[in-house]
Design brief:
The structure is a single chain. This protein is α/β, with parallel strands linked by helices. The chain has a single domain, classed as TIM Barrel. It contains 12 helices and 8 strands. It has an 8-stranded parallel β-barrel with strand order 1-2-3-4-5-6-7-8, surrounded by 5 helices. Strand 3 (62-65), helix 3 and strand 4 form a beta-alpha-beta unit. The chain is globular, with a radius of gyration of 17 Å.
Amino acid sequence: MRKPVIAGNWKMNMLPEEAVTLVRGIWQEIEGHDKVEAVVCPPFVDIPAVSELIRNAGMAVGLGAQNMHWEESGAYTGEVSPLMLKKFEVTHVIIGHSERRQFFGETDQGVNRKVKAALAHGFIPIMCCGETLKQREAGETESVVVNQVKCGLFELDTEGARSVIIAYEPIWAIGTGKAATADDADEVCGIIREVVSRDFGDEIAQAVRIQYGGSVTPDNISELMSRENVDGALVGGASLKPDVFAGIVRYS
């Protein structure tokens, strides 16, 4: 049985004091709701304060970073290493988000290196994939997503593949208010599961958790989660309000 995982990607929002207030508010709403694994992914500068709060308050909330370099140290100005994140008890790392690919030139090969580094340091990668509106209208959704998933999981062993969370985020639905239908999301998540099955076997494919992301709200989460291949959500703007994010976590 795959435990659903709802992760909030705060993107470039929230100062440290605001981050602490937000996490406190979320926890007040979801404490005791253990049917879902909840994860918050603040900006790097907020991670120390949020980590301290989660630890001291004994919150059952995962702490994710929004990115990570694959090297432990070196001449990589502006980057953050796995060891730096480990220091603050980070548990998850978002890798290959479409905004990283679009605005910062991340490649499938770079995503693969980051996934491998995350696993080597004990993090759970949340590996993103998804097509643009132009690719969708051209009928290229499957080929684009299959290629991204295969590249991202390249040369992983079966236990590594089992540990990766894959987030299907159609780029045309991110922050636009245009969510994919539950059936559309399930179809693509099913394609992703088939890719994992072909490369790593059906047992691993049935264990891998696949999220949907893109304009997820408390109003559409139940329908999305009712589908066989959707195991959670990667939430953007809706994760910045405690009652709204809690409403998504407490969908059941």
